[in-house]
Design a protein that fits this description.
The complex is a heterodimer of chains A (289) and B (136). Chain A has two domains: 5-208, 3-Layer(aba) Sandwich (Rossmann fold); 218-277, no CATH class. Chain A is of the alpha/beta class and 289 residues long. Chain A starts with a strand and ends with a helix. The longest helix of chain A has 18 residues, at 160-177. Chain A has eight helices and 13 strands. Chain B is mostly helical and 136 residues long. Helices cover 49% and strands 6% of the residues of chain B. Chain B has a two-stranded antiparallel sheet. The relative contact order of chain B is 0.12. Classes of the chains: A alpha/beta (289), B mainly alpha (136). Chains A and B meet through helix 5 and helix 6 of A and helix 2, helix 3 and helix 5 of B.
């Protein structure tokens, strides 16, 4: 099956020697919900902008459902950070613009949805709440019935109730249309229930990408006495201390790491994500090799 | 309906599977009972639909539920009425195992911890069919 999104050695250079993203090779299967995680400046927005066709790659290629993003604009729904909409326009006018600009736009569905959410269609965009604004932006995207939704921190600034409404709307579209979603987020704690595929970016490079359950199967957290160091050949991703023990996130291999006082368990979702977010910190790298 | 505990270390789809299994074992649901629909679960818990599909798919693979196209997902009519007692050797082998653990000087707490460790290990196991026989 054609990937919803496929990047091959994708890179973007902003100035000489300043790369927003480099050597990014990923495949997002159709219908998956993908979390894009990384610190500020790690390349999340750069990747999303290139996938949306808003930014030209410096190296490599990116494809959406087997063609360049420019050829798939009507199949892509993109909500940029803070859901930017023309503030002085009325909600119904925003929907009308969506209808005029997109041949496949489902204006009836969009208006029904807005009414269902209790958002006044005559209100101006700058007079509704942040949560409602995010919902209007999401509605514009959902009404395209896109193959790929790109959401840049869609739930920042939303209260828990609005987040929940946002998520259930997003998931409904996944179920109805088979839309794949790529969304960036800083809030690791809530990702576990949202995503089934994970991409971790660090300093403009992909440090982890894959199916979440598969990643949890192929990693282990080994716990040992304070100061314990892994000596086996399996690669240690990260280590940390807590509760009088030293823990290490490792890639699992053929040989189990048994030893006096060592315990092994599957990583929790947070251990996996945080482990890769902290990978290759210079101070730690020395201690681990 | 299901309850989800994120951060527990148990993947969400596993939690769904465990809860259906537990409900069947404890007689809270019966053969023929309908499971909540995909839409209902997603709406109630705000979780990824793929997770629910995966859980229901695995339950179907195990023979615990059956899917009827366009109707819904039901507890399988062939599900043993009281699986707690059903594989007769299972409880006995568990009792033997517990006696061995006690003879080795383990406390109830330690035995429970060991069972937890074994279950944590087990959820990694890709083959769901080995799940029920794990104790023997």
């Amino acid at each position: 099956m054609t990937s919803a999104l496929a990047a091959e050695s994708l890179g973007r250079r902003y100035r000489r020697d300043v790369w927003g993203l480099r050597e990014c090779t990923i495949q997002v299967p159709a219908g998956r919900v993908v979390a894009l995680v990384g610190p500020n400046g790690s390349g999340k927005t750069t990747l999303l902008n290139m996938a949306a066709g808003l930014l030209a790659p410096s190296t490599g290629t990116v494809q959406v459902v087997g063609a360049s993003p420019q050829k798939r604009l009507d199949r892509i729904g993109y909500v940029a950070q803070d859901a930017p909409l023309w503030p002085r326009l009325r909600v119904e006018d925003v929907i009308e613009i969506g209808r005029c600009l997109n041949p496949l736009f489902d204006a009836r569905m969009a208006l029904d949805r807005i009414r269902q959410l209790g958002i006044p269609t005559r209100a101006r965009v700058n007079s509704i709440s942040g949560g409602q604004r995010a919902q209007v932006a999401l509605t514009l995207v959902l009404a395209k019935h896109p193959d790929l939704m790109l959401l840049d921190e869609p739930m920042a600034n939303l209260d828990p109730l609005a987040r929940r409404e946002f998520l259930t709307s997003m998931f409904a579209s996944c179920m109805d249309t088979g839309t794949a979603v790529l969304f960036s987020s800083h809030v690791v704690a809530e990702l576990e229930r949202i995503c089934d595929y994970l991409i971790v970016l660090r300093r403009g490079r992909v440090s982890l990408a894959g199916d979440v359950d598969e990643l949890r199967r192929t990693h282990r957290v080994v716990t040992g006495p304070i100061g314990w160091r892994s000596s086996d050949s399996r690669r240690v991703i990260n280590e940390w201390s807590g509760g009088g023990r030293t823990n290490a996130l490792v890639r699992s291999g053929s040989s189990p790491s048994t030893g006096p006082g060592l315990e092994e368990a599957a990583p929790t979702f947070d251990e996996l994500v945080l482990g890769y977010l902290e990978e290759d910190e210079p101070a730690r790298q020395e201690a681990l090799t | 309906m299901f309850r989800i505990d994120t951060g527990s270390g148990v993947p969400v789809y596993r939690q769904l599977i465990q809860q259906v299994r537990r409900d069947v074992m404890l007689g809270r649901v019966h053969p023929g009972d309908q499971l909540p629909s995909l839409k209902e679960v997603v709406e109630a818990l705000a979780i990824n639909p793929n997770t629910v599909v995966k859980a229901y798919g695995e339950l179907e693979h195990e023979g615990l539920v059956v899917r009827r196209q366009g109707v819904g997902t039901f507890i399988s009519p062939t599900v043993p009425a009281l699986p707690l007692a059903s594989p007769p050797g299972l409880l006995n082998s568990l009792l033997r195992w517990i006696r061995r653990a006690e003879a080795a000087g383990m406390s109830t707490e330690q035995i429970r911890a060991l069972v937890d460790v074994a279950l944590d290990e087990d959820f990694e196991d890709e083959s769901p069919l080995t799940h029920d026989g794990g104790v023997a």
